[in-house]
Amino acid sequence: MSHFINIETELDLSSVNDPFDLIIVGGGAAGLTMTRELSGQNLRIAVLESGEFEETEKHEALNAVETSGILDNPDIQAARKQQNEPQLNVWTVQTQKFGVRCRVLGGSTAGWAGKVAPFDPIDFEQRPWIANSGWPIDGTDLAPYLDRAARHLDLGPMVQGSGFWRMAALTEPSEIAALHDFDAFFWQFARSRHSLTDVMRFGPDFRREHHANVTVFLNTTVASIVITDGAVEGVKIVSSLSGRAVGTIRARRVVLAAGAIENARLLLLSPGADHGPVGRYLTDHPSVSLGAFDSAHMDRAAQVLGFYPLREHYRSFMYSCGLALKPDRQREYHMPNMAAFMAVGIAHDDPLRALMRLAKRTSAAPLKDVATVVSNVGVISSAMGKKFLNYERIPERLRRLLADIVVFLNANMVAREFIGGGRGRQLASVGLSVIAEQPPEASNRITLSEQTDHLGLRRAHVEWELPDSLRRNIVIFGRKIAADLEQAGIKGFHIDPALSDPDGRSLLIHDMAHTAGTTRMGLDPETSVVDAELAVHNVRGLSVAGASVFPTSGHANPTLVIAALAIRLADRLKREIFEEKIGSLAQPVDTDSSRPLAVITGATGNLGRNLIDVLIKAGWRIRGQFRNTVPQHDRVEWVRCDFADPDLPDAAFDALVQGADAVINLAAATNDVSEMMVANVTNLDRLAQACVRQGVRYFGQASSMVVYGSPLTKVVSEDAPLIDLDQPLHTQYFAEPYMREYAKSKIEGEAVLAKYRSDLHVDIYRIAVAAGDKFLEESLNWSRGRKAIALYRNSHFIAPHDVARAIVHLMSSPASSSKGIEVYNIANSDSPTFTQVYRDAGRKTGPYIPFLFDLLKGFKTNKGFSRRLPMGAFRLDDSKLQGTGFRHAPRS
């Protein structure tokens, strides 16, 4: 579980002596995405967040910047205030005259609208008409990481243009099909997994998750990076509010993920890291209103350029349609990438407050309030629906299903409800605004001000100007879109009078708070700060994440690409740390070749760690295979090998099992359906073949109780029928689709091993849920929603150490010396259930809500109530195991 420490109140920094494997500076989208990717792999990770769980005005004061040039124009600052203030908590235009930073866990996602999109292929190109353009990577390099980032952000398919209409099974509006210079461009919205009527807030979502070996330091402002002889050693920190707590947190790898302003500022504050173009090539997304639709046509415009649903895998996702300049037109007109998005105004008559006044009999104008309520019945109903969707006693799966249904039925209503803050949906205005790519220029930059904050650290000074060419291009863009709309039949658009000047001198162009580019990526240290792997040039161990590494930023909102690059960086750091840790592990202590050798695959997992301990005590030498989790046991010969790799050579399997007396296969793909066939079937077969070639005596296979599906009896022995793969799986196993696929792969894996019964002794272990007493006791402190589901499901447990003891008992028994195949339920029929633990603690367990859903699911799929028993309503019979002489360890 993540450990949170507030250094203002809870920590004497002298106690932080042991170095971390990695320090991530910043708890925003980039930093927390990396943390999620790297957690749970035996890495000690420190996340340093300058804020707390909630924003405060004193934290906001640390965001103050000094500005010059157009940013001192009060009209531009008024436009920025109108754009940003309504959706932010403590942000002020006086403090942040450029950009939006939220010093809080979750970073700027505390105040964003959740809007994301992928970059266009042209954004990565070196374009002769855009100075300093071109990335050292391209879209194909980033594509797999975009897919993973989409899963982090809970997004639907990455689809654009005409492909969207086909995938969404919608007819493309004739007006969009008739456009000449523009294509439809689609943004998505990252939705919270917990507050289903809100966009994703990384901070609250992260707090509800469990991340092993992760320490989040709150109120921890980084004063500088410690660099010695060109290598990072850690960071100097100071407590954010009082400044009283100061110290150093050490690590040989540090990632700056604090945003484009702070990343540059920290490098400039750190001797040895302020070289080259740090702070230069600052960009944002310039924006300004292009015009508005008249009242007679704004409803149709809002319908065409509005929100659309797309369903995939029983989920509904919401897409916002805008208009982007076609790539070939960008080349023809020598223009940067730009798009127009719909900006709507919602009438803010508040029917909820009117209803409250009427209920409390405090209304000064009851007839007016009654009229407001009556005319806004939909808003009242929506408010009640929002409360229902966020009511945690209702299972999250049901609430999410209902939220998806609402999105599918009326995506525009959902969007207007959010924009209107729940107070109305009626359109007051519909306009178009531009979001433009800003060509990077070295003169736009972050430097250090002579002013200091209340911690004594020099503030950032922002120089951000717009070239005349960009102003002219925005005018051209606005005029072309007005002409294209008229020609395509989208009527009633009136261009803003400010675009009448071809030079755009009167345009009040402001930033969109998508600050980027201050630590740009490139191959030349003279013009870039980080390389293509996001490592800072000439500083070993220091990397940067976030939009600050963008060489150019297209027009798309940046968070999706930020997350993708963060995942790519996490993969690189994972590889480096693994190699370093494996290299530092001592040779196994047990090198006596007279001792038997056991190979354990999946040896860094829960069962693997326990099995290593039991085997070493029994006198075995160990060779352990691992994929991602960093191994730590120094009495094991470690081999890194990915069983999900379809191209793994036969030589890798032979080398893994060479000289082994026994092989215990615990490795398996459990969640990713795309990996299950390779890892659980194909490469299992190849592993068994290698065992035959290398003369291995014993093969143990970790199967699972899922192979029985939803059985017909409350006590299930090894002779019970398995899921019939020739029949529909959903009628035999009441589980999520991925679990049904997992069960299928485990059954096929057992069938594969049956082929080798004349060459090996094979034991198949059908294991109940492996979790110990501590896990059951921790459930006493779970949330109500989790209890309502988990207190019913997964109720048949066996301690992992007991599983390990059972495996060693079987592989050491006289029967294991003869060839053949045996199947054993590895279970403890006397293990406690959640219900027993709760009753022993004097707690009530409440209704088993999922049981009702399983009954209904069985009724629907079988056209009647099924005799099959869902998880939690049956137990494995372990009498065959006990018949071999095995006895379970007593409960601790």
UniProtKB/TrEMBL annotation:
Domain Glucose-methanol-choline oxidoreductase N-terminal: 210-286
All residue ranges annotated as the NAD-dependent epimerase/dehydratase domain in the record: 599-827
Keyword Oxidoreductase: yes
SUPFAM superfamilies: FAD/NAD(P)-binding domain, NAD(P)-binding Rossmann-fold domains
Protein family (similarity comment): Belongs to the GMC oxidoreductase family.
One Pfam match: Epimerase
Transmembrane segments: none
InterPro entries xref list: Epimerase_deHydtase, FAD/NAD-bd_sf, GMC_OxRdtase_N, GMC_OxRtase_C, NAD(P)-bd_dom_sf, P2Ox-like
Keyword vocabulary terms for this entry: FAD, Flavoprotein, Oxidoreductase
Protein name as annotated: NAD-dependent epimerase/dehydratase family protein
Keyword Oxidoreductase: yes
Organism the protein comes from: Acetobacter conturbans
Cofactors demanded by this protein: FAD
Stretches assigned to the Glucose-methanol-choline oxidoreductase C-terminal domain: 440-566
